[in-house]
Design brief:
GO terms for molecular function: DNA binding; DNA-binding transcription factor activity; pyridoxal phosphate binding. Keywords: DNA-binding, Pyridoxal phosphate, Transcription, Transcription regulation. Residues 11-79 form the HTH gntR-type domain. This is GntR family transcriptional regulator. There is one protein chain. This protein is of the alpha/beta class. It has 3 domains: 13-76, Arc Repressor Mutant, subunit A (Orthogonal Bundle); 124-362, Aspartate Aminotransferase, domain 2 (3-Layer(aba) Sandwich), CATH 3.40.640; 367-460, Aspartate Aminotransferase, domain 1. The chain has 16 helices and 18 strands. The strands form 5 sheets. Strands 7-14-13-12-11-8-9-10 form an 8-stranded mixed beta sheet, with helices on both faces. A 3-stranded antiparallel beta sheet has the order 4-3-5, with no helix packed on it. It has a 3-stranded antiparallel beta sheet with strand order 15-16-18, with helices on one face. α2 (39-45) packs across α3 (50-62) and α9 (231-241) packs parallel to α10. It is globular, with a radius of gyration of 23 Å.
């Protein structure tokens, strides 16, 4: 069995083995009970170490893809299963054709609309080292709660990173959280109450919409443009409704990939001051930005912006570490709510991240991710242009492109996606009211797959010109 391992690729060899074996099982429709090549044979045929093959096999056993029989080797365990996200809510495969996948698809479906990076893009070596180091040297990190504001060493590292993007503040203005979603939840709990009115971008982040609905907060929609929220509509909403807050995704907006223009950012701050509006700036894609970029928190001379960041998008979705930046008074209130609702975040996760930031490993990781994303973004935009897709602006980086084919109706597009083994983003997930849209969120980390390339081209052709 030839696995075609690329030793120059950024993807770890073990993950390449897993991906290749899963692809073989899928494409060859291998029956459950089929025996795989022995560890020694597979290693010899592909010039691999036996330890790499063992780790790949064991990983697939843990995933339920393979079964191990003592003395007999490894066998295909049974039909492959996967999970998806419909409107960014997890559930079983097959329940909704509009779903957005949570993880890599062992069923063979390509999750083109997924909300994060594939596992094959993740790098485990530095993370594993940091975990072992904390386990050996920081017993308190293994067993104790963190402080209400978060691990002091991590907060110092966060302050240093924020200074690089022109956000300067004191230590008592930073609070660590168990990811950005936890931070948003604390903000809603602490600063809003049921019946309050807020402004959200449309299209926008579906989990935020669900969170606000959960807390009984009413939402007003402001259209997102390639330069940020529509300022004229925003000003009218503020004048007519006196909302309490504005939630905004500044850089590499989810789902459009657009970024805030400086002039728009300045107008937002002027309106916020005039209408006493709290601005919650969600910047979870900050580390995908190679330049400083335009951020409200960096421009705010007062204290109207609450800034939310996270390391989950770049490092690990399982290592739940995020942070909130705001005035000292707001941070104190958030810390109080944090302790009441969760007794704090994970000191272990915070210690691991602090180690990665301190030794420079995290900085090098995001540099590699930026280069790879920049290349895939440019390539995907070129393919979409050649296939005559309409693109919502041209993102300068990040994960997402918001686009739609000109030649086909939504139902035809989804039928084509099914033919090519592709799962698209939900039509209703990205608007607060659940209205259907013919725009698609395209995750560029999946767009270089041959199935995606063929799908893009097919969607650009009228039915009479399609080769099948």
């Amino acid at each position: 069995m030839e696995l075609r391992i690329d030793r120059q690729a950024l993807v770890p060899v073990v993950q390449q083995i897993v991906d290749a074996l899963a692809g073989w099982i899928r494409q060859s429709a291998v029956e459950p009970g089929t025996r795989l090549p022995s560890i020694r044979q597979l290693a010899r045929d592909n010039l691999l170490s036996q330890s790499s093959v063992i780790e790949a096999y064991e990983r697939m056993v843990a995933q339920g893809v393979l079964a191990s029989r003592h003395g007999s080797g490894f066998f295909v365990a049974g039909p492959l299963v996967a999970t998806y996200r419909c409107g960014d809510q997890s559930g079983p495969v097959g329940a909704d054709a509009n779903s957005v996948w949570l993880g890599d698809s062992p069923l063979g479906k390509l999750p083109l609309g997924r909300g994060g990076m594939p596992e094959s893009w993740r790098e485990s070596d530095d993370l594993s080292y940091a975990i072992r180091q904390v386990s050996r040297t920081d017993m308190a990190g293994l067993f104790n709660y963190s402080t209400s504001y978060g691990l002091p060493a991590l907060r110092q590292q966060i302050l240093k990173r924020l200074q690089q993007i022109n956000i300067t503040l004191d230590e008592n203005q930073v609070l660590t959280t168990a990811g950005a979603t936890h931070g948003l939840d604390l903000i809603v709990r602490a600063l809003l109450k049921p019946g309050d009115c807020v402004v959200v971008e449309s299209p926008g982040y579906s989990n935020l919409f669900d969170l606000l609905r959960l807390h009984g907060v009413r939402m007003l929609e402001v259209p997102r443009t390639p330069r940020g929220p529509d300022i004229e509509v925003l000003e009218a909403l503020l004048s007519a409704n006196n909302p309490r807050a504005l939630f905004i995704n500044s850089l590499f907006h989810n789902p459009t990939g657009s970024s805030l223009a400086p002039a728009v950012a300045q107008r937002i701050l002027e309106l916020a001051k005039r209408h006493e509006l709290i601005v919650i700036e969600d910047d979870v894609y900050a580390d995908f930005q190679s330049s400083v970029g335009t951020r409200l928190a960096a421009m705010d001379a007062g204290e109207s912006v609450v800034y939310v960041g996270s390391f989950s998008k770049t490092l690990s979705s399982s290592l739940r570490v995020g942070y909130v930046v705001a005035s000292a008074a707001i941070i104190a209130r958030l810390a109080e709510v944090k302790m009441i609702t969760s007794l704090g975040a994970s000191r272990f996760c915070e210690s691991v991240l602090s180690s990665l930031l301190a030794n420079g490993a995290y900085r090098k990781l995001v540099q590699r991710q930026r280069q790879r994303l920049k290349r895939d973004m440019a390539a995907t935009l070129l393919v979409l242009e050649d296939a005559d897709w309409e693109v919502f602006g041209k993102p300068a980086g990040g994960l997402y492109i918001w686009a739609r084919p000109r030649a086909h109706e939504p139902a035809q597009v989804r039928a084509l996606a099914h033919e090519f083994g592709i799962v698209l983003s939900s039509r209703t997930a990205f608007t607060p009211g659940g209205e259907a849209s013919d725009w698609l969120r395209i995750n560029v980390t999946y767009a270089s797959d041959p199935r995606a390339q063929a799908f893009f081209r097919a969607c650009g052709l009228p039915d009479r010109l399609r080769p099948f």
